[in-house]
Amino acid sequence: MTQDNTRYNHRAAEPKWRAAWSAAGIFKAVAPDKAAGKPKYYVLEMFPYPSGRIHVGHARNYTMGDVVARFKRARGYNVLHPMGWDAFGLPAENAAIDRGAHPFTWTLENIAVMKKQLELLGLDIDWDRELATCTPEYYKHQQKMFLAFWDKGLAYRRKAKVNWDPVDQTVLANEQVIDGRGWRSGAVVETRELEQWMFKVTQYADDLLEALKGLERWPDKVRLMQTNWIGKSRGAKVWWDIASVPPQLTGGHAKDPIEVFTTRPDTLFGASFLAMAPDHPLTKAIAAFRPDVAAFMAECAGLGTSEADIEQAEKIGIDLGVRVKHPLDPSWEIPVYAANFVLSTYGTGAIFGSPAGDQRDLDFANKYGLSFKPVVLPPGADPVTHAITDVAFTDDGVTYNSGFLDGLPTREAIAAAIAKLEETGHGKGTVQWRLRDWGVSRQRYWGCPIPAIHCQACGVVPVPDDQLPVTLPEDAVFDGAGNPLAKHPTWKHAPCPHCARPALRETDTLDTFVDSSWYFARFTDPQNKTAPFDKALADYWLPVDQYVGGIEHAVLHLLYSRFFTRAMRDCGFLSLPSGEPFDGLFTQGMVTHETYKSAAGKWLGPEEVDRRDSGAVDIATGAPVTVGAIEKMSKSKRNVVDLDDFVREYGADVARWFVLSDSPPERDVEWTASGVEGAWRFVQRVWAAVEAHGKAPKPKDPAGDISADGLALRQIAHRTLAGVTDDIEGFRFNRAVARLYELFNAVRKSEADAWSRGEALRIGVQVLSPFMPHLAEECWQALGQDGLLAAAPWPTADRALVAQDTITLPVQINGKKRGEITIAKGAAQDAVEAIALADETVKGFLKGQKVRKIILVPDRILNIVAAPAGGAAE
RNA sequence: GCGGACGUGGCGAAACCGGUAGACGCAGCGGACUUAAAAUCCGCUUUUGGCAACGAAGUGCGGGUUCGAGUCCCGCCGUCCGCACCA
After folding, report:
1. Highest mean pLDDT pick, A249-253, A481-485, A509-513
2. CB contact at 8 A, A753 and A705
3. Biggest alpha carbon distance in chain A?
4. Is A94 helix (H, G, I), strand (E, B) or coil?
5. CA-CA 20 to 30 A from A740: which of A124, A303, A423, A655?
6. In degrees, to the nearest 5, what angle opens at C-alpha A196 toward C-alphas A190 and A198?
């Protein structure tokens, strides 16, 4: 017979236990007043975009959150672990254009499929709280919040230069432009001026920066990325009075001082020129009568903004014919240029060039023959001979050639220069931010409508509360050209809420990042019909204690959410004094897989390829296949393993186990068939051990006859328990997996008595349960335990068994390991020395040597420092 | 260019505070069971010398601190990530 009766049957066990958990309702978060003193714990994975199907790569993120949720629940917390759908977005609208499917239908169908798939994983999720951002039940409250923000000045309208994606035909936030291309379409982004809705993120710039320091349970990397993104620079605004202008220049430009921003006011005496952005108002004004300047502007506008373009672009400029007076020495006149390397979007769109202290300024000065002098003396340099020719000195030093600043170190010189500028009215100490307000208008259908009405008489008017939600029209036309809302024949027409005259609805929708900036708060009260959420519930559950998601959201989503919680707090929706939505953040690595390409250049999926040592072959045709790079699982490269297929063959537990083993959670893990086999073998070994034990006689009196082997096994079990407990707390899942392998290997090999073995199995199964909940539950039952393991409290390790009473201590001689001795735990130095020096191996190595020093690290190591006897030293 | 992280067997990795380098898994090799194969089980598996006991070397490279360095410091080399004409 090939039929093996003792095999664990995941196909029967997994659905059975999922049904049992569901029937018992153990994954439901308990209302605060019924929590019976249990502390709350909110664990959340970044919610998915419903794009189609789930593959095993997606499973890693949810499994990590699930391990934490199950663990915390067993540890006595009132756990909130919800799931929802980030359901607005371009793919749905593109599907509508490509296939004629309505975005709403397409999205709901995907959600249905993906929810079924997620359920297969056996996740500890409170599905009663499920939400989808594309439903009016959700976005109604978002519109409400938008109006509250607007009322508070946190949302406003402004004509702004925007990044226009010509393929997706919409505006992109700066954060969504990567190397000058749209983050989704990859199209080269154009600049346009449009009337835009903005969120005033900059209002919280200082707090968003400062509060990063308090986010101790966030990865340093993410905090650093946000710090850089916010980009705080201290410096000064400096006003340069006009000395002379071309006769054609009139009005303000001819007399108002030019404002520049600098972080190095200490180098003002090294100034050589001013440079304006090509699209600075002054440049434009001069271009109006100088064709050469107009041509220069056009040339600069034609240059790309991609990395390669910038690298190759030469630093070029043009003299505008304007002369300004030096702010600290009015007799000194300085020329004003327009230059292609000055950005209109940062600072004041104008700089002063101090060539000795800035490489770009130096290159520019050399190119146009502008004179300059060094003003910062490098440490140790000679003030008489020090000179700058083609390499600028950008570090701190001592100021010289600078009048009243002479002799001051750079930091002090900056402060002194600012003081002088303020005193003479030629400047002001200031802080410059890289962070800009968030443009949230999108010219798209499949997003949350912005609840505003444009009235010719009354201006832009909020939609009254009783008219919310402003819902999307179902009968829009999706032909890929422009915004379906703007083109809809009737939807945009609405009476003005103020004067009742015919007016037009706002046809822009909100950036989908708005939807995901507050969903974690909605989860605290997802059925609320009158408010986004109840304040008391949000105050109870927030902040999220553990957030799990991809590093790709290090700036966008996480920064927007931090803005949103502050804005919600200041509009009275919640308390959250810190303003921080996520107390702990973990950024998990991806699941990768080999890629396969046929001779014809077509990507092949793993299921279509027969992988051999020597290479790979297309199963259908027998043709050889090129094995490509190991990459993140993605639909486009087809290197995905479908979750349904996998669960049918191996079970959810094997998938869960695999994605957590081998690699640290923050690093990528490569999915391999052989790795899967290893996980599968382990499942069967665990089950075999439990089943074999279940049939063994159980002694009535546990304390009676514990063998030496039994004690040893009990020690391993309790140490595993203590270790895995720490590992889960510390997000070291791969280490926990290794420990569990060790425990079950030990059980298999041990000659322990039945009682000790039973205890080890019981502990092992319990500790295994966050990782492989179905198998653990089946084993729990087979071991004769009552109730559901998923509802059982986490066991406590016996400290006496975790602690070791005797220790094998390595003995080093001159730093090399030469032997081992057995000592009592905590033995004093003299006792250990005596044992070590009496040891035969040690004696052998010490023959003819004189012991000079003995270092004992208690219970860790002993190092004997020895030298040849009678040596000359000392 | 600026900022950051990392570099350990054939592979993924472990070593948490400076204290036995390579746990655990994969692959490989040998064996048991089998008519045979699969599955399963047992053993070996950093390199190198040796029949062995037992040595030697070894955590990208070169230095340093220390009784002791994968871990700390300095300088290189390499890989990856973020930002980028940011004044």
Report:
1. A509-513
2. yes
3. 109
4. helix
5. A124
6. 115
Q: Residue A333 and residue A317: Cα distance in Å, rounded? A: 19
**CA A530 to CA A520: how far, in whole Å?**
18
Q: Which of A82, A66, A85 is nearest to A29 (CA)?
A: A82
List Cα–Cα distances, A479 to A11, A485, A652, in angstroms.
45, 12, 41
Q: pLDDT tier at A306 (50, 70, 90 boundaries)?
A: very low
Tell if A178 CB is < 7 Å from nucleic strand B.
yes
Mean pLDDT of chain A: 90
Between CA A644 and CA A463 the distance in angstroms is 45
Q: What are the backbone angles phi and psi of residue A850, rounded to the nearest 5°?
A: -105, 125
Higher pLDDT, A623 or A680: A680
A393 three-state secondary structure: coil
Strand B, CB < 7 A, residues 242-301 of A: 261-264, 277
How does residue A393 score in pLDDT terms, banded at 50, 70 and 90? Answer: confident
Say which nucleotide is closest to residue A853, CA to C1' distance: B67
Q: How far in angstroms lies nucleotide B63's C1' from the CA of residue A816?
A: 22
Percent helix, percent strand, percent coil in chain A, to nearest 5? 40, 25, 35
| Any strand B atom closer than 7 Å to A866 CB | no
Beta bridge partners of A163: A172, A191
> Which residues make Cβ contacts (< 8 Å) with residue A417, sequence separation at least 6?
A236, A265, A266, A268, A328, A405
Which of the two residues, A628 and A183, has the higher pLDDT score? A628
State the nucleotide closest to A357 in CA–C1' terms: B87
CA of A611 to C1' of B3 (A): 42
| Nucleotide nearest to A352 in CA–C1' terms | B87
Quick one: residue A36, left, alpha or beta (phi over 0 = left, psi -120 to 50 = alpha)? left
Instruction: Give burial (CB, 10 Å; 0-12/13-18/19+) of A363.
Output: middle
Q: A147-151, A679-683, A816-820: lowest mean pLDDT where?
A: A816-820
CA pair distance A345, A348, nearest whole angstrom = 8
Asked whether the beta carbons of A867 and A873 are under 8 A apart, the reply is yes
User: Which 3 state secondary structure label does DSSP give A88?
Assistant: coil
How many angstroms separate the CA of A175 from the C1' of B11? Answer: 38
- A670 strand B contact, CB < 7 Å: yes
Indicate the Cα dihedral angle A358, A359, A364, A368, nearest 10°: 90
Q: What is the pLDDT of residues A159-176, one digit of tens each?
A: 877 788 888 777 777 667
Locate A443 and state its tokens.
């010219």
Of the CA atoms within 13 Å of residue A671, those in its CB half-sphere come to: 29
Rounded Cα distance, A753 and A785, in Å: 19
Task: Check residues 756 to 815 of chain A and report those whose beta carbon is under 7 Å from nucleic acid strand B.
Answer: 808, 810, 812, 814-815
Q: Name the closest nucleotide to A432, judged by C1' and CA.
A: B86
Find and list the nucleotides of strand B having atoms within 7 Å of a protein beta carbon: 3-5, 12-16, 19-21, 23-28, 38-43, 55-57, 67-69, 81-87
Q: How far is the CA of A808 from the C1' of B21 (A)?
A: 17
Q: Which of A229, A228, A280 is nearest to A259 (CA)?
A: A280
Q: Report residue A528 as tokens.
A: 């609320």
- Residue A845, CB half-sphere, CA atoms under 13 Å: how many? 21
Q: Residue A674 CA to B28 C1' — how many Å? A: 13
| Residues 329-358 of chain A sitting with CB below 7 angstroms of strand B | 340-349, 351-352, 358
Q: Report how far apart, in Å, the C-alpha atoms of A441 and of each of A48, A62, A158, A189, A192 are.
A: 22, 31, 11, 16, 13
Amino acid at A399: T
Closest CA to A733 of A746, A747, A723: A723
Q: pLDDT class for A873, splitting at 50, 70, 90?
A: very low
